């Protein structure tokens, strides 16, 4: 009977000690800071990337790069089935959309290589015509948002479904708008 009581006490003490040890481990680990880089369309402003990587090095943080793009380039007007020039333009627009999407993919890879070279953890996300909520979800948890001052301006494959200027008026975290 005495042995049973000693064993029970040891088990109880171990169960109480485990959460305390886990809490001490959590406090001893530094929570990594995170910043977001926001791109819209095919533009890839190197000075924005350089500033974000500099911040990540200095704060020993990580980056999440959010690339926004439109579903496709808008067509102009109605195309009549017998209009061969218009049909050719549609085919060229489809090829253009594909080529512009490849540029965005290339931009994503360039950023990943720059981050690896700087020993910075980076995660990339491509959002096609996102809603405000989808964008804000991706930006969530970021201490900073780095982007170009011209990110809301129209351009090749820029997403216009969301109102970036409205989001910038009340950003979810500190924002640094950088001249291209």
**Largest sheet, if any?**
5 strands, parallel
Number of strands: 5
The shape is globular
Strand content: 15-25%
How would you describe what is shown here?
This protein is of the alpha/beta class and 180 residues long. Helix content is 49%, strand content 18%. It has 5 helices and 5 strands. β4 (144-148), α5 and β5 form a beta-alpha-beta unit. The longest helix has 34 residues, at 84-117. The model is unreliable at 1-29 (pLDDT under 50).
How is the secondary structure organized here?
Elements: H1 2-28, E1 34-40, H2 46-59, E2 62-69, H3 84-117, E3 122-128, H4 132-139, E4 144-148, H5 164-169, E5 174-178
Parallel strand pairs: 1-2, 1-4, 2-3, 4-5
Brief write-up:
This protein has 180 residues and is an alpha/beta fold. Helix content is 49%, strand content 18%.
Descriptors:
180 residues, alpha/beta, single chain
């Amino acid at each position: 009977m005495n042995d049973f009581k000693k064993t029970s006490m040891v088990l109880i003490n171990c169960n109480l000690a485990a959460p305390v040890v886990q809490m001490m481990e959590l406090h001893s680990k530094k929570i990594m800071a995170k910043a977001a880089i926001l791109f819209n369309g095919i533009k890839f402003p190197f000075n924005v990337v350089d500033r974000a990587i500099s911040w990540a090095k200095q704060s020993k943080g990580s980056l999440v790069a959010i690339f926004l793009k439109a579903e496709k380039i808008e067509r102009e007007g109605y195309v009549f089935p017998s209009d061969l020039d218009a049909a050719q333009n549609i085919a060229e627009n489809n090829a253009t959309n594909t080529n512009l999407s490849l540029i965005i993919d290339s931009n994503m890879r360039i950023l990943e290589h720059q981050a690896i070279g700087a020993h910075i953890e980076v995660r990339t996300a491509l959002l096609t015509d996102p809603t405000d909520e989808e964008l804000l979800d991706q930006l969530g948890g970021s201490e900073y948002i780095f982007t170009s001052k011209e990110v809301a301006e129209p351009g090749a494959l820029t997403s216009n479904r969301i109102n970036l200027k409205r989001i910038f008026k009340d950003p979810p975290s500190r924002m640094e708008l950088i001249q291209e």
